[in-house]
């Protein structure tokens, strides 16, 4: 184990009206490829604008610093799994669904927390919660709802990195790597995260089991499905 701390063209003269028939595009034109070249190009550009292409992940043979930076930059992922929380003499388990879109994290906890569970949305600054009764809460009321449901306030802004097997780049951390140069343990912001299993997802190692502990709180995380 290794420890590492277009120019605008102005037209002159009267503008000729566009004939209606020149703007009509039939399904036959689309299927047969009979579209005017300029219109075809515009359609391609619009289609591409709606797609987000994720950069390829670095190979597992790449140095840890390279793979860590790539994972920290990843802002689009989905996961499904379960969490088991132990607090003193109490505990519970729940299903977990996480959707990350840019800075926004959306978590859904389903289980003994109540019918419908709890829905949490956070972008690092704004926090919203929908409780088991369907009530929408934000700010301090949202924090109190999470504290009441979970028994502690999860570090969501950092957790979005921890679930990927990397530290939050915003604060300092102590890292320990395993023989495959993946995080074995991580200490950050008073939490210790022990990674006990990884799974291969499209050629990239992502955590499948981890345990988070801090001041009497223990959270076991099991991820059984990763999505992009």
Radius of gyration: 24 Å
Strand content: 35-45%
Structurally, how many domains make up the residues?
Answer: 1
Sheet with most strands: 12 strands, antiparallel
Distance between the termini: 30 Å
List the helices and strands in order.
Answer: EHHHHEEEEEEHHEEEEE
- Total number of strands: 12
> What name does the CATH topology carry?
outer membrane lipoprotein receptor (LolB), chain A
Extract low-pLDDT stretches.
Answer: 6-32, 39-53
- Per CATH, the superfamily is Lipoprotein localisation LolA/LolB/LppX
Helix content: 10-25%
The chain-level mean pLDDT equals 79
What CATH architecture do you see?
Clam
Q: What's the level 1 CATH class?
A: Mainly Beta
Estimated structural class: alpha+beta
What does this protein look like?
- It is a single chain.
- By secondary structure, the chain is α+β, with helices and mostly antiparallel strands.
- The chain has a single domain (64-227), classed as Lipoprotein localisation LolA/LolB/LppX (outer membrane lipoprotein receptor (LolB), chain A), CATH 2.50.20.10.
- Helix content is 23%, strand content 41%.
- It contains 6 helices and 12 strands.
- It has helices at residues 20-23, 27-32, 37-49, 64-73, 139-150, 156-162, and strands at residues 2-4, 76-87, 90-101, 104-111, 114-122, 127-130, 136-138, 174-177, 183-188, 191-201, 204-214, 217-227.
- It has a 12-stranded antiparallel sheet with strand order 1-8-9-10-11-12-2-3-4-5-6-7, with helices on one face.
- Strand 3 (90-101) and strand 4 (104-111) form a beta hairpin.
- The protein is globular.
- The model is unreliable at 6-32 and 39-53 (pLDDT under 50).
């Amino acid at each position: 184990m290794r420890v590492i701390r277009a120019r605008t063209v102005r037209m002159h003269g009267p503008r000729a009206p566009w004939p209606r028939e020149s703007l009509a595009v039939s399904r036959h034109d689309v299927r047969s490829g009979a579209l005017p070249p300029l219109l075809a190009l515009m359609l391609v550009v619009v289609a591409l604008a709606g797609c987000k292409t994720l950069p390829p992940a670095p190979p597992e043979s790449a140095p840890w610093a390279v793979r860590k930076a790539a994972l920290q930059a990843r802002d689009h992922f989905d996961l499904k799994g379960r969490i088991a929380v132990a607090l003193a003499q109490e505990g519970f388990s729940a299903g977990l669904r996480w959707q990350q879109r840019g800075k926004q994290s959306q978590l859904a906890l389903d289980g003994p927390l109540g019918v419908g569970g709890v829905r949490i949305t956070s972008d690092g600054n704004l926090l919203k919660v929908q409780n088991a009764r369907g009530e929408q809460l934000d700010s301090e009321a949202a924090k109190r709802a999470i504290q009441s449901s979970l028994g502690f306030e999860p570090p969501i802004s950092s957790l979005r990195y921890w679930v990927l097997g990397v530290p939050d780049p915003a604060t300092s951390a102590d890292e320990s790597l395993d023989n495959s140069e993946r995080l074995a343990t991580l200490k950050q912001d008073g939490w210790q995260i022990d990674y006990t299993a990884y799974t291969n997802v499209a050629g990239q190692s992502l955590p499948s089991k981890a345990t988070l502990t801090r001041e009497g709180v223990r959270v076991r995380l099991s991820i059984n499905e990763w999505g992009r």
